[in-house]
Design a protein that fits this description.
97 residues, mainly alpha
């Protein structure tokens, strides 16, 4: 029976090592899971950044087209005013005014 305390201590040490190994495995799995989540988040963020960039480019292009359209409308209005003035002057010449 003298070996009973030694066996008990050995079983306790084996149990502790098994617990430590299990905890280390769980910590490793958790760390791996966290790294995978971070990688997914980075991939999603990259996609969002690309979409944001595309959206900003589309908004800038639309704004530029609107400015060009406004400029063309202004030029068209100026042409109409000049045409109206020429027509009025022509009518005035015909009437002798």
């Amino acid at each position: 029976m003298a070996w009973l305390p030694i066996a008990s201590a050995a079983v306790e040490l084996l149990g502790q090592h098994a617990t430590d190994a299990t905890q280390q495995a769980m910590l490793g799995a958790d760390e791996t899971h966290q790294l995978m989540l971070q990688a997914q988040e980075m991939a999603h963020q990259e996609v969002m950044d690309q979409r944001s960039e595309q959206f900003n480019e589309a908004v800038q292009e639309r704004s530029e087209r609107m400015r060009e359209r406004s400029l063309l409308d202004d030029l068209n209005m100026t042409d109409r005013k000049i045409d109206d003035k020429l027509t009025k002057d022509w009518i005035g010449l015909i009437r002798g005014q």
